[in-house]
Amino acid sequence: MLHAAGPLLTVDVSTQTSERTAIDTVLERFIGGRGVGTALAHERVPFDADPFGPENSLFFTTGPMQASTMSFTGRMNCTGISPQTDRLLSSNAGGFMSRNFAATGNAAVEITGQSDELLIVHVTDGGVEFEAVPELEDATVPEVTTYIDETHGLSSEHVACIGPAGERRVRFASIMTTESRAFGRGGLGAVLGAKNVKAITFDGDSSPDLEVPSIQMDVHRDAATSDHIMKRQGTTSVTDLANEVEALPTRYFSELSFEGVEGINGDAVEDRKYTRGTCSACAFACKLPTKDDERGVETEGPEYETVMSFGSNCAVDDIVDVMQSNELCDRYGMDTITCGNVVAAYLASEDEFGNVELIHDLVADIAHRDGVGDRLAEGIERFHEDLEVENWTVKGLDFAAHDGRTLHGQGLSYAVANRGADHMFSTMYAWEYPLVDADDALEPTGLEGKPAVVIEQENARALEDCGIVCRFSRSFMTPDRFEGLFDAEYESLLEVGSRVVTLERHFNSRRGFDRDDDSLPYDLPGFENALDEYYDHRGWARDGTVGTSHATEILADD
Ligand code: SF4
Questions:
Q1: Which ligand 1 atom minimizes the distance to the CA of 473?
Q2: Residue 214 pLDDT grade (very low, low, confident, very high; cuts 50, 70, 90)
Q3: Which neighbouring-strand residues pair with 60?
Q4: pLDDT tens across 425-437, in order?
Q5: Which of 172, 205, 243, 540 is most exposed, with minimal Cβ within 10 Å?
Q6: Domain boundaries, the chain
Q7: 6-26 pLDDT per residue, tens
Q8: Domain Aldehyde ferredoxin oxidoreductase N-terminal spans what residues (predicted)?
Q9: 37: helix, strand or coil
Q10: CATH of region 408-555, choose from 3.30.420.140, 3.40.50.720, 1.10.599.10, 3.40.50.1820
């Protein structure tokens, strides 16, 4: 089975030391990415670690094809205990850093400890250097990347960094790379901030010498010649459909469609798109560099999720206002989904929907923990009672934009996902929208038969996260291409995905979480039975936990 290659590099920022450890067995068993991060966390992070404590680690991990020219592989994984969900969480970012990471010769880089001074950690194929950077305190993401470019000659494609939000431990702070790409969900930027690490750079010339089968060229060609609508509108191409079927959260989740959708839909984004945007080596190029010359706004995106969080959920019907919110989040280093939903919650409490000036002020206040921003920086689960608004979260993570009250299988997925109310954990929504090209589309209503489908999809997504293959490769990365590329039966590859989901659940079980945490703030018909069915299919206990013997079996060498 094809898997990532190279050692684990552990960087302890408390002692400013580093060491390399061979992790071949872990790589063989988990391929790379999220699986390797999850397995390493089991070995190296105490189950009761404080997300902000020195004993929590961040594991940056790559897959086997990050040094190839294959489309859909310009991505990276980061795993750690999330300060937003308090659970083990993996987050995935696109951009261009993955190639530079692979060039350091490491399969995984662990950042652990806690520094006394603000640092940049420079990782190369020759070793690790630590640079104290007190002058970068409070610097924005573009300020950090400009500094590194000017002082070290490394472009933003070599950099993972945080903005002021990460330094101030905003619980949904991102780790940013290539300036506009984010390890977004779950607040891993705040973990880096708690370690007093402002940035990590990756550079080298020691990419692993792996032969990727020639199928990669077929994938690349098909991606280049496809006329898929995502190449024009990215994820925003789904906006009108979601609105039509009433799956577009609006006015802090109180409505399911938005009367102002035309101002923020895929066409509105495409109108502001000024060039193609991509991740390294990806011929699909679905990214969205946008600008509005009249108002002087330039950003990358917004993606569909941000169109919801800062658009319909805040009752904002002008895409340029959403673009501006997107740009502010990137600049300060915050997840655009959570930040928009947090702002929407505040607007609900103050009856201020549509107040764009307030929205943009709040984004800056949250990033700096100024005034009410200090409370909002804690996330909806922690402030909703104070603000007397509903708690639209699962496991502390606020909902993504494909509403589970309409797409019931997606609702079940939000409830059970180890990461909380996150759409990428299974992408179950894709089977429940009435899309013309989906022969195997499911009725959106009802949960009958869906637990098994949710599991299948979760396993397939976890496999993508281990191999570091982008979610949007679905039409191109067929099971037979997975088999050809990874040199294994598709069923055994899915088994890797399944192991990873179970291992994550075990880690979270050890932190005291169970079935009570797999719950929704709304009712779905047959939900409790569907939960039983889901646990039974997974081989988990009916209380939603995974025992240590099960995890030990998964981690054991064959
Ligand atoms: S499909 Fe889009 S997000 Fe995925 S790797 Fe290609 S450009 Fe990046």
A1: 1
A2: confident
A3: 78, 109
A4: 999 999 999 764 5
A5: 205
A6: 8-203, 226-398, 408-555
A7: 999 999 999 999 999 999 999
A8: 5-206
A9: helix
A10: 1.10.599.10
The residue whose CA is least distant from atom 5 of ligand 1 is: 72
In this structure, the strands spanning 197-203 and 119-124 are parallel
Interstrand relation of 159-161 and 76-81 (parallel, antiparallel or unpaired): unpaired
Residue pair 64/30 in contact (Cβ under 8 Å)? The answer is: no
Does 543 score more than 90 pLDDT?
yes
> Is 115 within 8 Å of 197 (Cβ atoms)?
yes
Q: Which residues contact ligand 1 via a Cβ below 6 A? A: 72, 74-75, 94, 278-279, 282, 284-287, 470, 472
Q: Measure 471 CA to ligand 1 centroid, in angstroms.
A: 8
CA angle 10, 16, 19 (to 5 degrees): 30
- Specify whether the CB–CB gap between 61 and 527 falls below 8 A: no
CB atoms within 10 A of CB 171: 28
Question: Tokens standing for 7?
Answer: 């050692």
Compute the average pLDDT of residues 487-503: 97
CA–chain centroid gap for 107, Å, is 19
Cα dist from 20 to 62, 97, 107, 122, 525, whole Å: 16, 21, 11, 15, 51
The token duo for 295 is 């108002």
Peptide linkage before 302 cis (omega within 30 of 0): yes
Q: Token pair for residue 512?
A: 């005291």
Local structure of residue 545 (DSSP, 8 states) = -
* Residue 155 token pair: 């472009």
Find the radius of gyration of the CA atoms of the chain.
Answer: 21
Q: Which residues pair with 119 in a beta bridge?
A: 132, 197
Query: Which class in CATH covers the domain with range 226-398?
Result: mainly alpha
Pick the CATH number of 8-203 from 3.40.309.10, 3.60.9.10, 3.40.50.2300, 3.10.20.880: 3.60.9.10
Taking the C-alpha atoms of residue 440 and residue 374, their distance in angstroms, rounded to an integer, is: 46
Choose one of 229, 273, 287 to mutate for the ligand 1 pocket test, by most ligand atoms within 8 angstroms of C-beta. Answer: 287
pLDDT recorded at residue 438:
59
